[in-house]
């Protein structure tokens, strides 16, 4: 009888522990999925002067957030700030090269002085080099890693102390589908975006205990208007042509405003990851389920692409042809005008 009572008590204890554990898991899930308002919050966006960064800044501002824009180009930065202020936003624009830790720390100190703590950090600054491996140099890989890996790390480390002190924060790292599937002729870009995905995933697991939720974003091509400001090597006109055509086609690329809304909603919920756009979701799934087949398909695509080992670097705006100025690229050119990318179009 005593033994039976002990077994029953043991089963009850295990049941209670199981229920408590399940409750803890459900509570943790609820906490991790807590939706927040950005009204009155301070949002720092790197690469915020144009393209996706500027589109997100507009949408955060519509919710009543205070906006800090950071970018290297002061003229573009001033123009973006002026636009947001005309629309009633509270904006601080700070020139900063995120690959320089000293500049990053000075920027965050300036934000603290003006607005106090950073509530939301969006690591969006980016660069892109397009061309075959033979045309790339170590400097191209260094540049991509400095902007896409070291930049997000420096900004994250700079805002973390205050976020930890308050026990709350949101960090969004804009990677790419190129950070999950390495696309031909984008090797420095893809390698650095893979590194950012690893960093972002690791930050997520280590910072959740401090109330800081990190979201890794892997979008498809977005029509932000950025191709004229990207860099092209090898046969630069041919490389620019395939890149800007893909950026302009609705089936291949995604409207920037729609993508920004999805990213902001993922940040609001504190999602671990947001793969944005159908092409990105299909590519990520294919890579996960059939990596060998995916690699074989991409190898075939690579054989169809321009092959030239010329290491000279040209901006997209210097690589225009009649085809890339035609109606086929109309959507990209419209986005460039709208999102502060237009200076280099002429």
UniProtKB/TrEMBL annotation:
Gene3D superfamilies in UniProt: NAD(P)-binding Rossmann-like Domain
Transmembrane segments: 12-32
Keyword set includes Protein biosynthesis: no
UniProt region (Disordered), positions on chain: 307-346
Residue span(s) of domain Ketoreductase: 41-215
This protein's UniProt keywords: Membrane, Oxidoreductase, Transmembrane, Transmembrane helix
InterPro entries to which the protein is assigned, alphabetical: KR_dom (IPR057326), NAD(P)-bd_dom_sf (IPR036291), Sc_DH/Rdtase_CS (IPR020904), SDR_fam (IPR002347)
Any Pfam family the entry gives: adh_short
Biased segments, Polar residues type: 319-338
Domain of life the protein comes from: Bacteria
Similarity comment: family membership: Belongs to the short-chain dehydrogenases/reductases (SDR) family.
Name of protein: SDR family oxidoreductase
């Amino acid at each position: 009888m005593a033994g039976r009572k002990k077994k029953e008590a043991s089963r009850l204890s295990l049941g209670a522990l199981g229920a408590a554990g399940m409750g803890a898991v459900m509570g943790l899930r609820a906490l991790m999925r807590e939706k927040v308002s950005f009204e009155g919050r301070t949002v720092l966006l790197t690469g915020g002067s144009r393209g996706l960064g500027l589109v997100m800044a507009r949408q955060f501002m519509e919710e009543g957030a205070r906006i800090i824009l950071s970018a290297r180009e002061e003229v573009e930065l001033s123009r973006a700030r002026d636009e947001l202020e005309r629309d009633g936003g509270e904006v601080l624009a700070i020139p900063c090269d995120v690959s320089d830790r000293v500049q990053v720390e000075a920027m965050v100190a300036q934000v603290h002085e003006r607005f106090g703590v950073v509530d939301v950090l969006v690591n969006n600054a980016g660069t892109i080099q397009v061309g075959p491996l033979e045309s790339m140099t170590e400097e191209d890989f260094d540049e991509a890693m400095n902007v896409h890996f070291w930049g997000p790390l420096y900004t994250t480390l700079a805002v973390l102390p205050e976020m930890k002190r308050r026990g709350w924060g949101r960090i969004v790292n804009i990677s790419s589908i190129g950070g999950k599937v390495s696309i031909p002729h984008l090797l420095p870009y893809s390698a650095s975006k893979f590194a950012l995905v690893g960093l972002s995933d690791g930050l997520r697991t280590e910072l959740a205990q401090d109330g800081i939720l990190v979201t890794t974003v892997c979008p498809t091509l977005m029509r932000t208007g950025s191709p004229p400001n990207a860099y092209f090597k090898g046969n630069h006109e041919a490389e620019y042509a395939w890149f800007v055509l893909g950026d302009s086609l609705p089936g291949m690329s995604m409207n920037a405003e729609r993508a920004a809304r999805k990213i902001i909603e993922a940040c609001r919920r504190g999602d671990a990851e947001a793969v944005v756009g159908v092409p990105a979701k299909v590519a990520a799934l294919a890579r996960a389920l059939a990596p060998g087949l995916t690699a074989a398909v991409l190898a075939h695509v690579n054989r169809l692409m321009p092959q030239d080992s010329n290491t000279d670097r040209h901006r997209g705006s210097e690589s225009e042809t009649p085809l890339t100025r035609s109606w086929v690229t109309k959507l990209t050119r419209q986005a460039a005008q709208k999102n502060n990318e237009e200076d280099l179009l002429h």
